[in-house]
Specification:
Elements lengths: L6 H21 L3 H12 L6 H18 L5 H24 L5 H17 L8 H18 L3 H7 L5 H25 L5 H24 L5 H23 L3
């Protein structure tokens, strides 16, 4: 099995993941929101399955550490929504032409940026968690970016509950998304190899973030990340336009 990326493409992808991981350590997100559209521009095979593999690594580690703070009721309400959203994504991926996926990815990136700008929502309950998890599952399966809808739903809860419960949702939701992509023949050995090849970059990035995050000014960093993500999403849409 040949590695589908050139050395330059792999180095660029690793650099994107490294920067995204450092940003996530500073402002709470960045790996998927910034990484997915840029990785798609580097090589379309990098999204969504390899990016989902990368994005699941941190929630898994957090879940091992924060499992005592997990709220089972929140997970119980969110997972059916994730299943429904993933099923809808499977239907969309089954009928949408491959050439149109870049445009869809770009549009969903812009939606994720918009959700990240919303400030006030009610406390999480069934009426919030079901649709938020549904949108998260849909977006994650198509773009690997499933965090913003659920992060928005949990923005008013304590840190441990936020980290633990979101991780308890993201890990099984990610497995469900990968299983769905495998069923659609969009996840196989090549995607596994690509995802694993980028894991050192994300681990190094999170290690660095623990040492530099306190020095980064979040007041300008957050809007800068959102702006770059929006531009990358728009670029993916432009790239998908027929010539």
């Amino acid at each position: 099995m040949d590695f589908p990326l050139s050395l330059l493409q792999w180095l660029l992808a690793s650099a994107v993941i490294l920067v995204g991981a450092i940003l996530q350590g500073a402002i709470g997100y960045g790996v998927a929101l910034l990484g997915a559209p840029l990785l798609y521009l580097i090589h379309p095979l990098l999204v969504p399955a390899p990016m989902i593999i990368i994005g699941m690594s941190l929630p898994l580690l957090i879940l091992l550490r924060e499992w005592r703070a997990v709220q089972p009721a929140d997970v119980a309400w969110a997972l059916p929504g994730s299943i429904a959203g993933t099923a809808l994504a499977a239907l969309v991926l089954g009928v949408v032409d491959q050439d149109l996926l870049g445009g869809l990815l770009g549009a969903l990136v812009l939606l994720a940026v918009a959700l990240s700008l919303v400030r006030r929502v009610p406390d999480p309950g069934p009426a919030i968690l079901l649709p938020a998890a549904g949108l998260s599952g849909f977006m994650a399966t198509i773009t690997s970016i499933g965090g913003p809808p659920l992060a928005l739903a949990f923005q008013n809860v304590s840190g441990p509950r936020l980290r633990g419960t979101l991780s308890a949702i993201f890990v099984p939701a990610g497995i469900l998304s990968l299983s769905t992509l495998a069923w659609l023949d969009r996840f196989g050995p090549v995607e596994v190899l690509l995802g694993l090849s980028l894991l050192p970059a994300i681990l190094l990035g999170f290690w660095i973030s623990g040492r530099v995050a306190h020095r980064l000014d979040r007041r300008w960093l957050r809007p800068t990340v959102l702006a770059f993500s929006a531009l990358a999403g728009a670029a993916a849409m432009v790239q998908a336009l027929p010539v």
